[in-house]
Fold this sequence. Notes:
The complex is a heterodimer.
Chain A: H1 2-25, H2 35-59, H3 66-71, H4 78-83, H5 89-107, H6 115-139, H7 163-176, H8 178-192, H9 197-228, H10 239-264, H11 268-290, H12 304-328, H13 343-375, E1 379-381, H14 383-403, H15 417-437, H16 442-469, H17 474-477, H18 479-499, E2 502-508, E3 513-516, E4 519-530, E5 534-545, E6 548-553, E7 556-560, E8 565-569, E9 571-573, E10 578-588, E11 591-600, H19 602-619
Antiparallel strand pairs in A: 2-11, 3-4, 4-5, 5-6, 5-7, 7-8, 9-10, 10-11
Helix pairs in contact in A: 1-2, 1-6, 2-5, 5-6, 5-7, 6-8, 6-12, 7-9, 8-9, 8-11, 8-12, 9-10, 9-19, 10-11, 10-13, 11-12, 13-14, 14-16, 15-16, 16-18, 18-19
Chain B: H1 3-31, E1 33-37, H2 39-44, E2 52-59, E3 65-68, E4 71-77, E5 82-88, E6 100-109, E7 112-120, H3 129-137
Parallel strand pairs in B: 1-2, 5-7
Antiparallel strand pairs in B: 2-4, 2-6, 3-4, 4-5, 6-7
Amino acid sequence: MMSLLGFSGLFLSLIFSVILIIVYFFENRFYLKKIFYILVFLSFISILISFFSLMCAYIISDFSNYNVFQNSHSSKPLLYKITGTWGNHEGSMLLWLTIMSIYNFIFSFNNTLEQKVKKLAIFFQTLLYICFSLFVIFTSNPFLVNTIQITEGLGLNPILQDPALAIHPPMLYLGYVGFSLVLSLALSGLFLNKINTMWIITTKNWTLFCWSMLTGGIALGSYWAYYELGWGGWWFWDPVENVSLMPWITGLALVHSLMMTKKEQLLKRWIVFLSILCFSLSVFGTFLVRSGILTSVHSFASDSSRGIFILILFLVITSFSFILFIIKSEESDQKLNLLFINKTSALVINNIVMLVACITILLGTIYPIIIEVITNKRISVGEPYFNSTALPILLPGFLLMSIAPALSWQTNKFPKLKNYLFIFIFLSIATLLISFFTNFSIWGFTGVLLSLFIISASLLSLYNNIRRNGFKNIFLLNNSLIAHIGVGVTILGITASSVFQSEYKYSFAIDDANQIKNLTIKLRNINVLEKKNYQELNASFLIHKNNKIISTIKPGKRYYHVSKIITTEAGIYRNLFQDIYIVLGNENNGRWDVRIFLNPLVNFIWLGVILMIFSGLVGMRKK
Amino acid sequence: MSLRFQRLLIILLSLIFISISIGLILINSKKNLVFFFTPSELINSNLEINKKVRIGGIVKEKSLTKLENSQYNFIIIDNKNSIKISYYGLLPDLFKEGQGAVIEGILLKNNLVEASSVFAKHDENYMPKSIKQQLEKNNFWKKNYK
């Protein structure tokens, strides 16, 4: 029943979209004028019905649906029944379609653009929508029905049963899929040759929103990896992580270029190029992940026919866009105001740095595939490659971003250069001295110095701005500075938690205590808890700091009956300056292997990300 | 500084930056590659000692021994050859004898690897594609893994 309703919704929304494409060409007839927007609405409503009927099938555990049977179980808590809707390939593609349609629908209320540009953008967005809905119907239909009566499902992978991971996909998709609207806007502006101030402001707002959501989605994923996978880190340079990073970096470059064009009406071609690249990279990433070409811990069940379909989609979308780009884009007659040190040149260099970093990551990700095809040897490119390539490449960008907002657009005079220079020299000496007397590491030194410089230089610029403009609209006027402070805070967190992380391995019997620095960690007891759909082994460690009790940490292991999988639940004591992170290992003759990590400043990472998202969303209100 | 000179300077700087990046990519991709082998392939390859390798295969039944606190020895096999592994650390939850695993570490002798990390099969259906192909080729693929 639910499957039928859902599929009808999906199919109807495809039909409405096709009608919309036809109507677009005959819109001059008087009676078709209103129908255009009604069709956008109808298509949106149908896909929404389709999506919610799948969700409904999950909630009521309708195992006649093959997708529900494969990925759900009646004993799952309600929250994970709901989020199980997008915890699998088919469901997540339906979510993809729904979000695509939501963007189209909300965009149809836009009143800043010219009617013609707006309609063409909706036209392109609908074309993209049709492509992806064909993909869903032909290769990943979530509404297949079981031919025999089934009373119980196979269950959702337990490591996905987690609150952070429940909202991670929708947020990530709001970013990924949102870039499709940016692409549609770019194509429409390009086609009609209407890339003007209004277009730029509109595109800037949508891009900022998508980029902020993508940032949040990626951060949620890392946050989940940090406490669920139990190896003490939060970033693995796994292919799936890399493919999400590529559109993120390109989107960031796009946001910066849009700012530059706002002032000078320049670099339009470059902006269109980046807009196309963002969504192309999103689709390419989807192809790499869903086709099973890359081996990744996050892999969805893979199927080669899907891979080919997405590859074709990717090639069609990308080649169409770039051909249009080559044919339609015009040589701009204005020249760049490129001086040695001004905002324009800083932004150009920023763009170069970001794109090169993006290419580095892309190469590292697809290099194993290329090598396997050519030499038939299997290799893996891991963390060391990315750390020693991408990070040094980003270095000049980080240096630049600390001073760039203070530069002027028109001249190459750098006001108050002395102050910034003084800060830099002071910080270098201070960091050098501190790291000399503790444990020196080149990565640690560079990271700490850079992040402190970014933070303090941005604060200085913020102070100057406040002196000039007062506290009125403080967030609106300084949102880029706030974002840069966020980046600084994040870099500080990343550096401290990776370079200065310390790991200890112990074997504890009950009532054993071990001393780490000024902490005493004592194993009090180990309990077995019976939960609805799993059994949990729960240890409780008492933490003393300087002989005062500060907390109890409860790491555990869960055994999920349905899927017969054990998962690790790391126990974390959070503090702004240091996380105490405990992972429970195996038992041996009454002694438990335990891994303890001290992760300094790891919460700065999430704090910085929140600052970035905040300033991204605030930037949407900027005119 | 004249306008032209300033622009030239920027272009020059960008070029230097890009060439440094290309250099970094080339050097690092050569230095940090890890080759992936099954036990038979590793034994037949003439890989230098002390190189970093990845090995994928099945953990031999009853080969896992715990020496002391977090120090493990076990054997990884395909149907022809076997490689001894020594590992210091916590084994992942899903690590089991008779199941698939991937080991990354340093080759100490022709058939001995000191592991720096051990990855176990991710879930019931998961097996890296590369291992699966190789195991199927060697007729080691049990039906029930599929």
